[in-house]
């Protein structure tokens, strides 16, 4: 697939595109939305009707800086198809940001300022260690530093792997025919819209990606392999779930000596293929650990275990006695969860430091309630290089609340390791699963991408994002409830509108950061 550059043609009837950025209340009565041109090659001449008409100029919120913009409205919902109730969301896209013009328009422009990792080569350079690491600049902004010493804003996709349906397999064979061609083509196309790596859940693909990287050293796909330390710990040692319930699995780390020993041995086994690999961003030791959920506190869960000799129950009882408490509060639960997190993360950290001290530890992809638990985030920040967060259930990043809290609590940067929206009205999938918001159409997915990522770029403690995911679900995925999550559809074709809006932000992340920081 030939990926062509994205640009917007403004149709100006009054001679101006934006009203003054200081006059938030004025709305130009002669305003006409710009047309979207998906292809710059004249022989295609494909022009989509104009963008949605924006509202009045206003300061963006939630934000600590309040850059002016004109919002469009995108409907979203946490319901599955058919959606009965939509929420109108004020949405920020590049075209309607005041005082900002994209500086990088074409792929040629983008390649002129970046290296093979998508890192910025025309600005500051840090110490080159031959491995990825993080550093905090003098201005307070965190960066991932690539093996060559250049600052890299992380943009990757998760779940690069084979599809499960017959039509998917047929499309794969027709388009690629080999793993080598599949990954080389995917790398080229993803890099052409500003994605340069892979995230979690690349099941059975990590070794193939490494083979691609060896064969194409100037066009690598970075890796961030994911594991299931807790489940492996349980099976290796023959443990039962505390209280007989899988949601209590974290309580097994209370066998602290066994946990530390297991981490050392399992790291040496599981991470052996990645030791010293310069293209490995880092690794995830688990996914979405149940430190607590919205409806169930982990301290309460352990106290409800009926076996008084169960280690999790005994530890919870001792904690309540230590605190002189007879009732679980949110503060007590958060402190207790933080103690468990301390044991968990410490075991993995010490193991990786002994085995491959140059490899970054990316944590456990905190989600839901745990990402808002101070003591858990503190423990994660203490032992991880980056705090990974699966960020759902919010239309906009919480820039004036939890995002700065994460900076304070963790003392480390964060990386969004899952987010997406799914189109319900123009997808052939039933869209009956998934944590990402439902939106009506592919155009809305495109607008939502820009809105959420622009918010992340404002945050000096954010070092990037992983879009969930490479390709749509299909077939029996999610127990027969496949959803429209991908950059690619099930015929291995990129969604054109989504990919172009992704490209516009991805190409301009570095000058957007300058815009927000200054």
From TrEMBL:
Residues 1-19 form the signal peptide. Keywords: Signal. This is Conserved domain protein.
